[in-house]
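RECORD TYPE: inverse folding
INPUT: structure tokens
STRUCTURE:
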């Protein structure tokens, strides 16, 4: 199982979150159209140049997505971390590596929904981001399946990858509702739920 995120990734997530919170508060105070990147950077105590290391626009910052870098190079590094693990475990760990430990944050998702309702112009960016993340993750999951002897290249179809990723994210939401939200405990519950569900389906 991969080690807990390193200090560098934790700092990146914290800086991204601080920028997003600053963007969100300014947008709520002054409306998005009257909020500037310079204002957001100043409130987050970063430079405008640093802002663009995390977000492409003020709209993206207001939405506040907290995924780590999803570039091909970053995903390749994540895949090396989970190489050799069984598929279910590898996909769960890949999700943790990409999203960090923030994706179980219900308050973050609620705030994002409220912002899209208040500022409908954010909807297109939200949909585009979700599509981009989904495509990158499905590609990564296909790689996981191709490397797993139980699957192999022929079975590692886009449909299979989407299904396993969907099971993973559903298991995450279910596991995150429990009282014990320690990352290792959530990982273990997710893997157990995926395996149990798959075995019951296979037994039908």
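DESIGNED SEQUENCE:
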């Amino acid at each position: 199982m991969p080690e807990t995120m390193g200090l560098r990734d934790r700092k990146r997530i914290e800086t991204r979150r601080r920028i997003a919170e600053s963007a969100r508060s300014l947008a709520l105070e002054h409306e998005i159209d009257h909020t500037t990147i310079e204002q957001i950077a100043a409130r987050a105590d970063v430079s405008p140049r640093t802002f663009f290391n995390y977000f492409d626009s003020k709209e993206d910052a207001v939405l506040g997505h907290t995924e780590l870098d999803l570039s091909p190079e970053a995903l390749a590094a994540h895949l090396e971390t989970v190489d050799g693990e069984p598929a279910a475990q590898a996909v769960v760990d890949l999700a943790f590596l990409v999203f960090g430990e923030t994706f179980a944050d219900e308050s973050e998702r609620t705030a994002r929904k409220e912002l899209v309702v208040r500022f409908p112009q954010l909807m297109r960016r939200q949909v585009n981001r979700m599509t981009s993340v989904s495509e990158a993750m499905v590609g990564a999951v296909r790689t996981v399946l191709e490397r797993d002897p139980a699957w192999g290249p022929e079975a590692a179809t886009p449909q299979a990858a989407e299904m396993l990723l969907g099971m993973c994210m559903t298991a995450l939401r279910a596991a995150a509702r429990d009282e014990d939200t320690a990352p290792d405990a959530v990982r273990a519950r997710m893997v157990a739920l995926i395996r149990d569900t798959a075995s019951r389906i296979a037994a039908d």
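NOTES: The two ends are 31 Å apart (CA to CA).
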